[in-house]
């Protein structure tokens, strides 16, 4: 997957710019950023790696839910505490956020007839289809939560991926990159540039 949109080597700058824009919005409290030791512990515990820009964003400051804030217009109430608090949150809650994209796909497999054609023929009964989809989903790239049901691909070395809004298999772009996403989510417009997504599987649901 890796670098997108000419952002090579720019993970630190892009993440820092996204945090700068968030601080300007005054929509949440921001604690000191995660340390290298905290990142290492989180990635070991949950089995994924933050993208470089996402990591730089959280190193520059950790957004937390301690300040009451009006819900952003497109954030569904399924996430009443939208900022993933990697330092303080219940670990099962964080696992639930990480599982959310795949669980949404499984819901649509079971209830709405969804099937990804590259998985081959769909099993005839629903239970077998869900079991097969669950096996296949262990192979797709992990998405890491940014805010509510907004996600970035989780891969060390990845920079500049668009932020995706993930609701079951209804997935749309929600920012050309992480900095643009902050503008778009919190009411300051957004870029008109065409997003580029190269992350396997999820790109085919857009």
From TrEMBL:
It comes from the Bacteria. This is SMI1/KNR4 family protein. It comes from Actinoplanes sichuanensis.
């Amino acid at each position: 997957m890796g670098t997108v949109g000419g952002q090579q080597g720019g993970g630190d700058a892009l993440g820092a710019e996204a945090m700068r824009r968030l601080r300007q919005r005054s929509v949440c409290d921001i604690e000191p950023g995660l340390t290298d030791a905290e990142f290492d512990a989180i990635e070991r515990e949950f089995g994924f790696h933050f993208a470089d820009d996402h990591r730089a964003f959280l190193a520059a400051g950790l957004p937390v839910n301690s300040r009451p804030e009006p819900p952003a217009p497109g954030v569904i109430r399924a996430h009443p505490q939208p900022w993933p608090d990697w330092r303080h949150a219940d670990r099962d809650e964080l696992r639930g956020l990480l599982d959310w994209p795949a669980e949404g796909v499984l819901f649509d497999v079971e209830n709405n007839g969804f099937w990804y054609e590259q998985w081959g023929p769909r099993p005839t009964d629903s239970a077998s289809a869900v079991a097969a989809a669950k096996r296949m989903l262990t192979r797709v790239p992990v998405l890491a939560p940014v805010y509510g049901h907004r996600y970035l691909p989780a891969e060390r070395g990845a920079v500049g991926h668009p932020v995706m809004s993930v609701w079951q298999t209804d997935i749309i772009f929600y920012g050309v990159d992480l900095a643009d996403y902050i503008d778009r989510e919190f009411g300051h417009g957004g870029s008109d540039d065409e997003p580029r997504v190269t992350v396997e599987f999820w790109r085919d649901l857009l």
